[in-house]
User: Fold these one by one.
Assistant:
Number 1:
Amino acid sequence: MNVEQLYQALKKSQEAKGIYFNKDKDLVFELLESLLLNKDRYGYMACPCRLACSDREKDKDIICPCVYREPDLEEFGACYCGLYVSKAVHNNQSRVKYVPERRPPEKIC
Amino acid sequence: MNTEKPMLYALSTCSHCKSTKKLLNDCNVEYDYVEVDDLEGEERKAILEDIKALNPRCSFPTIKIKDTVIVGYKEKEIKAALGITE
């Protein structure tokens, strides 16, 4: 799968859930390329902004879309990487705030 | 005077880390950096311990500028720590 195909597939599946790509398309494509790189590297699309450990079971919380996406979208209007934004941000009804890391540090290995 | 170079702990795939690098480059700052996702074994373990000492959440980017530790791509804070005024 190339980056354009990934973009189209995710756009469709995520928008159906009311979740949108960031309007910064350069950022989105850069992150999608990193996701494909991580898929090659680890065998799964680990979050590009977090340190994966090559163990799918240990990294399952950070396989994109990560389990932290939903609370981050709700609280900050964007996911940790900035790949996805909430409907309110997409519609310019609210702004993206700085998204701090919420993954517990003990999960990093 | 503390003349040590800023140290950037980054991931090769992280957008915030890339933005931070670009900022430091644009400011013509000399800095050291390490991309932790490219490390393995003991080397990786040792760097992770260094990062946790600066930033217990061990998130990226973590930047040490003199005695200031900045977590995340925070342009204003990074520039302030570098002594860059606009």
Note: Chain B has a mean pLDDT of 94.
Number 2:
Amino acid sequence: MAEKKLTKKDVIRAYFDWIMFALSCQNMERMEAPALVRMMARVIHKLYDDVEEKKKVLLRHTHFFNTQPLIGSMIPGIVLGMEEQKANDSNISEEMIIGVKAALMGPFAGIGDSLMVGTYIPILLSIALGLSGESGSLLGPIFYAVAYLGVMFPLTWFLFNTGYKTGLTAAQSILSGGVKDKINKAINIVGLTVVGAISAQYVKAKIGLIYSSGQMQVDLLKSLEGIFPSLIPMLLTLLSWYLMDKKNMKIGTVFSHICNYGCGSNIHENTGTLTMR
Amino acid sequence: MSFTQAFLIALFGYFASNYSPWLIGQMGGWYTIGRPLVAGAIIGAILGDIQQGIIIGAAIQALYIGLVTPGGTMPADVNFAAYIGIPLAMVSGSPAEYAVSLSVPLSFLGVSMVYLVITVNVFFVHLQERWIKEGKFGLAGNIPIIGSVTNFVFRFFIIFLANYYGANYVKQLIELIPTSLGNFFIVLGGMLPAVGFGLLLKYVLKENIELLYFLFGFILISVFHLPIVPATIIAMFLAYIDFKYSKEEVA
């Protein structure tokens, strides 16, 4: 079997597919996953001949994925490298690729948001404001655009390309080390913990059942939060996992249940007696 | 404002929105021409007074200089504030303070549009999944282009109409959107990620007992309020301990 290899051109195109479309179809359910699917869909014919194999690859990238698209461009790079390696070596497991994505998306989002959005951009903008805030000089906007793009464009490509090379070699060296299962498990632990952590950040649901009798009011939410902060979002996440994994419920069904609950709670909110938020 | 001017401003406003892919994604769009200071220069050029555009843009920029938009949450959306606030202030000949005061309700309108767009977009993800299962890989790969239509509709047309019909229209537009509708999308938007995480868990989880790691990560944030990077380092520590002390498996 001939070796499946991506050319430099493929990697550059994958970079642009990610950088451009990371957010263009962002959605509340899977966030930036559609862009990963696009990136893989455009190189898939170079990696696999079998249609069922191609489906498997693309489907594993439809899962929830969210990071800071620019600083986090390293992750799609790693994914691309690992997928190329996997096409040649069936020893690389699907779990490893999914685990790596899950483990990295949180930290890269955190670093990107604080360093680029929270530090680099405000510094550039304050210099630019100093240049043109009072006078309305064109110097400020030009300085900002040049300083921002001049750094970010090469940096994002560097991150993506480094990720790609890392993905290729890391997968190889893990396999040759003979501790594949242990490393898989370690990646899995980091992945699961990070998924738990970002669930706590993203999922928001409240229950506002207030039992009142005369002067006495019992706020159910307050008592629950006292036992376990964010208990409802956690239960909601576990419930949707349980329904999909253990009850084999279709995503669409779970989705519509949640929509119904959302609608229901909104109506209740308007009547005022039974508030759910 | 002439039709052409409103059209051009709306076009740039769309390119400058967070979800527009066309100027190398977020890089040239949201983080470059999406910044009110840069937007001020562009709008100024379209309306024929670059200097005034930049002065008003700078005033709005100062208000939102430290705006960080982490993850799926959006505290304020500067897109409408810049591409509706600046031109309306310029046309009416008002001082920069007028644009700044207008920018606050406009940024909230922008936020409800963000939630609307990313809720509607859920439809496209399911379409993409169906197309993959049917073997239509080309179409599935084009979902990010097809799906960008939602953002185009809610950015281009609102910016165009607001600029073309003027300040009174904007006031009506903000009043038109009932708070309950905005609430609805925010409530729904808060719950939907649960489905995404549930699906991810289905693939990452091998044994049920491993849910403990998930719960551990959840508690690190919800109870201990750790930032994500230290939480990841703790996770790496756990993984290392597991790696070091678990028995070698015979391959």
Note: Strands of chain A lie at 210-213, 216-219.
Number 3:
Amino acid sequence: MSLDAVFDSEEPAFVPYLAAGDPSYEASLEYVGALERGGADVIELGLPFSEPIAEGSTIQSAIVRALQAGMTPERYFEFVEEVDVDVPIVCMTYYNLIFQYGDSEAGPRKFVERAAEVGISGFVVVDLPAEEADPLREACDEFGLDLIFIVAPTTTDDRLDSMRERVSGYVYVQARTGVTGAREDVSDQTAETLERISDWDVPKAVGFGIKTGEHAERIVRAGADGVIVGSALVDIVAEGHERDEPVAETAEKLEAKARELKTGALRGVGAAVESE
Amino acid sequence: MSTDEPADGSFGQYGGQYVPEVLMPAIEELADAYRRYVLDNEDGFMDEFRERLADFGGRPIPLQRADRLSERYDTEVYLKREDLLHGGAHKLNNALGQVLLAKYMGKDRIIAETGAGQHGTATAMAAAYLDMPCEIYMGETDIARQRPNVFRMRINGAEVNPVTVGRGTLKEAISETMRDWATNVEDTHYVIGSIVGPHPFPSMVRDFQSVISEEAREQIQAKAGRLPDSVVACAGGGSNTMGAFHHFVSDEDVDLFAVEAGGSSLTVDEEEGVAPNSASLSTGNEGVLHGARTKLLQDGDGQIMESHSVSAGLDYSGVGPELAHLVDEGRVTPVNVDDDAALEAFHRLSQDEGIIPALETAHAFAFLEEHPERVGDLTIVNVSGRGDKDLETVIEETAKRDLDVAPDMSVFEQVGAGRLGSRGDRE
């Protein structure tokens, strides 16, 4: 399924994130499946990079666990082929892994070609601003993949124009300044950022700091087309790993958390309809 | 100041701005400030910088003839004594420039990363001098092996935040500082410590450090009546290297040698993901790290390798993009020497010239020892910093080896065993 098809529906999209291979390849396969059962519409699947400079401690630790368990770009592609879900998968990573794949002389093309082969729908590349993204954008166009950019509260109007020209699939609205990590509250910066890009013709999905169904509801009510949640889910994986919990038990918790977030997002639409 | 280089901060295919979106406005703001204040001297910024560098830093710094080395190698050896700069290393040139720039930009908090502690110390000193709050990120491994500098930072009023992820060296400290910056970008300036990172850092740090070659070029002409045949400088990230080279780059007859840390071996341990060296110019390949496209120590998948050097200040998996470009162009020659040779050079310089060099600097002298025939009849070696901070490491590392030039170390053995176990445990 393409990203377009997901966001064409009336429902807000629930977009969970997990690091592939955290804490092990097999467990991670189960966890991704649990997210779909809990209502995921798109899954952002992290390809771990050794220097994740934009991540807070939660996702940073997930990346370390996945790398220690042997995750590599090639294993990641095998993982995507093997994972048993029917929703689109977006690869979230850092540019060096894309740049290096196969042969750096070829730039990002080989990575995108392989991603297309295994059925990946698009990319979020955390350290690739729009200005440096043309080679990847061209490769994505060639193989029909989407390239998602992150809009931050600090993003200037000039930079918004530059992103708008290159973005496809959805735009990732960073809910607040900082690095990733679940927070007790969601930011007021969100509505302001959504307003600034309200006339863009791509869906707007909001992430960073969203932890509960109530957060998801408020984000959708603020005008988001989708809700992205990473750290709150990765926390469940980390706790399961630390407590040596059976994989099935952690998977159930993930499914329940996913359902809470998806249901919250749906309530957000209801509230918006009621208020009109 | 410079430059006729592209405004986007590219050096050939290297450089650029590969950072999370949340940092892009800060980078653009900094690029604008760099253009206005550093390149165009708006509001007399560069005049104030130079005045403060003279009064607080002690510039100009002497270019000294090294008599014993000149005799030993049968070539004229001159030393650019950056170890005499306030704080004991070239790092103050950049730290003072950036902290002052942060003030001009209206920022009210300084953060920095440090490996050997020299940059952290220089930043803490500059921040104290210019009355700015300052926090320094430093890997726990480096904290253990560079304790004197940790104390110096604390004494100057800076907070020192230990970084415990990874191997706890400079690479991890840079990543952690970038996270802080991403969180506090509106009021905070990140004083990056070398010619690495996204544009404008590589150009800006180079410009602040280029006072080294600006002075050296004038001084050698006054003393020797001509330009040198070569300039030799050690290279980690590359700030003292480019500082020493910059005003000689267009002098095609001057050979420029960037001496990297060959560590214990140039062979990579793929299994462990460790390069037992920090020789990214000599052995690395192109990639993207910490905001720039440059030469890196990385595995076949693009994961960044842990580096190694006996010198904490050289222990980094990347190198400045301008240096990578100049190497590709054939203008700069990358060479490397191993830990043993650097330690020998440390002792030799201390005994022959009465100068205790930083272990970083000792690498440059080790190259001179190994290849005196390559530097021509007249060479300048950049003494990037003094070695007080390295004494505990030198005691420990010398005790492990049978070095021809070392003093009798038996008196230190008990001290070494008692105090310095943490680094030994890691190896």
Note: Chain B is about 45% helix and 15% strand.
Number 4:
Amino acid sequence: MPPLFTRHRFLRHAVALSAALLAAPLAAWAATASGEPVWFGVSGPLTGQNAQYGAQWKAGFDLAIDHINAQGGIHGRPLAYNFEDSQSDPRQSVAIAQKLVNDKRVLIELGDFSSPASMAASPIYQRAGLVQLGFTNSHPDFTKGGDYIWSPSISQADAQPLLADLAVKTLGFKRIAVLFLNTDWGRTSKDVLVKAAQERGAQLAIAEGYQPDEKDFRSTLVRVRDTNPDGLVLISYYPDGALIAGQVRSVGLKQPIAAVGSVYSPKFIELGGAAVNGIHTNTAFYPDEPRAEVQAFVKTFRAKYSKEPDAFNAYAYDAVVYAAAALRQAGPKADRKAVRDAFYKIKDVPSVIFGKATFDAQTRRVIGVKSVNLVVKDGKWAQIDEKAAVASSK
Amino acid sequence: MSFTSFFDHTVNGLIIGNIYALLAVGLALIFGVSQLINFAHGSVYTVGAYIGWASITYLHTPLPITIALVVLGSGALGMLIERVGLRPLQGAARIAPLLATIGISFVLDILVQLVFSPDPRALPTQLPEWRLQIGTGTIGALDLLIAGIGITSAAVLFGFLRFTKLGWAVRATAQDRDAAQQMGVDVNRVNQTVFAIAAALGGLSGLLVGMYYNNISPAMSFQATLKGVVATVVGGVGNVPGAIVGSLLLGLIESYGVAILGTPYRNLFAFALLLVILVWKPNGLFGRKRVLPPEPLTGTFIAPSKPWRVPPRVLLALFAAAVLLPLFNPSPYVLQTLTNAWLYGALALSLTLVAGTIGQISLGHAGLLAIGAYASSLLVLDLHLSVGTGIVVAGVLTSLIGTALIFPAFRLRGHYVSIATLGIGEIVALTILNWESLTRGPIGVSGIPPLSLFGRDASSNEAIYWASFGALVLLALLQWRLLRSHLGRTFRAVREDEVAARAYGVSPDRYKALAFGFGGFAAGVSGAFTAHMYSYINHETFGSQISILALTMVILGGLGNISGALLGAVALVSLPELFRVTAEYRMLIYGVALLLLIRFRPQGLLGTV
């Protein structure tokens, strides 16, 4: 593809996305943003055990910023960010928090990645009155840190019943074996899932938690096999999900598998190979979903990075979109408190993950989640039903 | 458990044991010859896997060529490590090369991440897909290849050690380095050969394990080192056949542990096994029954060095500067970084007393932080103690629990102590994870009240700074008093020569318990402070990386040296922050800085006291 064409395509989609995403009245005539940037800070892992997620964040941030700035930025000023590497280590995330809090230009903070690192820093953001937007923090207590602590991370209370629908209603699992990542996220998800599955008439055969650095699942799978379930549900990220899939058949388990949406990634198929064929999942982010927000995001992502986006790219992209919406709402002379107040006011922000995102004033999380059911077929993700399911908001 | 399941668990245990064996053999060889636990072994294993990945992806090599490239590449890396990283440290304290291997592993991991990106990658097996049905399970070509390579390399190694001249030299060097040198053995060449062989085996195991799981990532090295070390110790360090049997045993125990109790208990079983074996047979299953203490009987790790005394005037000036700093309105970031340094300083004090003064190198000190943090959080949240009381009680509890946990390790010596403590640290983390009714398991403890002293809120940056600094100074003064007393001299006597101390009527176990008790208090207080500062903790908050960080701090400062421990803590907390501008490269720069420090000041910046 000639570079000019790519650039042209990119611009075309950037403009299309602008129209779809950010129908701010000013954006129509503002050409390019100029002047002193509007800053947000990021605390996240660029090195260490979770470095891959930081790299995915960055790709999502940069794409969102391209769009926002191409459209006039925030009240005519460009949006920019300062990414501080925390290694997802609480010791460093608290130091970073102090640094960002003290940097008067920073109006919002995004991150950190893991709960220990994010929640250790929360008291500092709360005390200083700087919004902490923890967009991967699904820990049930995360937003309880105070009224400056917000999270657009998918609530497991919304997401897991949809997975239970897929496992029990669509795939007909009656006795379910659950393998879950033994972290705050996996554990919370497992509890909600098991409850939702039981409400739908299924039984729990066995639930096994495994450590994030676990690589050998054979003994666990033999244990699962002995309970004779008729379906497996994985609460995993893509690397460990692929590892489990690769070992399932070697112990003679032939049951169908459903997995939580976090396995959705091109990498899942790359790492799992033939073993992931037939695995079902339901995901809030699927690049082939026809929604305008998704298509605009996916096309520009491909054009910019020449690869497929995955869920973490989308979370990061969306997080910047929410931040930009709040900064716009807060007005040109916004201080940090005005930005916090803006989060109560922004409604139906166009979102790749949620469709239209609105924060609940009580929980400070986004309500509802859209999700589509997928299956891996011949080494590719395929949608199994036409319409996206929507979690009933409580 | 049905018979078929038992059979399958056994096969699984043997397969995973075989994988551990590939790692353990290299570790055992290196230990046998240079009495060194090579913490860089896991990183060589990672590099090997990536060499394989690169050659398959870019050169499209068939399997035999891939294997040859991996063996050559990792072997060369092993020689490089020995030549550049370790040989210059000959004659330095034996702790220096240990720390150097930690630094090397750090640098290698980051290099791999910078070159290949942190994303996990698939490593194609390049083997036929067929599987052999055995019982209800199956065995594939790769399983057989792994077993084959394991057995072959063990056989080749055996032949090499038994029938070649260089092999004899290796064995002679292992038995008595000085004597071998006097008999004309080129000890350096032997060392380098051993590193090359061990690294080649390590790299090969990285390739095979990567193929086995179809997954490699720069983060895979630490767990590999950990399991390799456990397997080696179970078999008896420095004993190659022992390492293989130890690995298979470890694999089986893990597999049966999962079968009986479930997946979350897997590592708990592994480390409990480690401790049982260390207590029952302190030299491992296949270790020689009676190992003569090293001659002469001076401290195993401590280098003779002249410490740099920091003049009291300078200390006072630094103290005054630290106390007055918040009054000059520095940035909260600087205050926070220093607060972290004070809290780590308390941990370093604890460790320097244990490792430096009494000579028990602990690699599980993060476990003490975790106990202190959980104790104070739960006392305040569940029993409604005030925060100040919670912190003090947490210190006492940590001191008691920590000493009780470590007590079985007191009869061990040298490296065995460090490995036992490593195991204890892991056991503490895994107990926290699994004892849900008390600790809330993986969900962790949230909403921990902020620091308050005498009923007044002390959660401002300045208050936390002063409170943690005050606690640190208090602990440091107590320790200083302790070291100058008769008791302190007894501690050092135990360190310098346990046998001689015993001959003079000193009961080493009691003194070790006293040292761990005092150290446990300092670490517990530090953990408790941290918990109230973070407001949320879980089993991952105080991981084993922190134990290694703490050890690095005290070695860097000078073992047994109070000012050294504080200097080490300040340096290692603030250096990564100083290098922050270099973004992705900062940990590399930090690693290299660490290696240079070890190279040019192996006895620590301020020297051992």
Note: Residues 1-7, 22-31 of chain A have pLDDT under 50 and may be disordered.
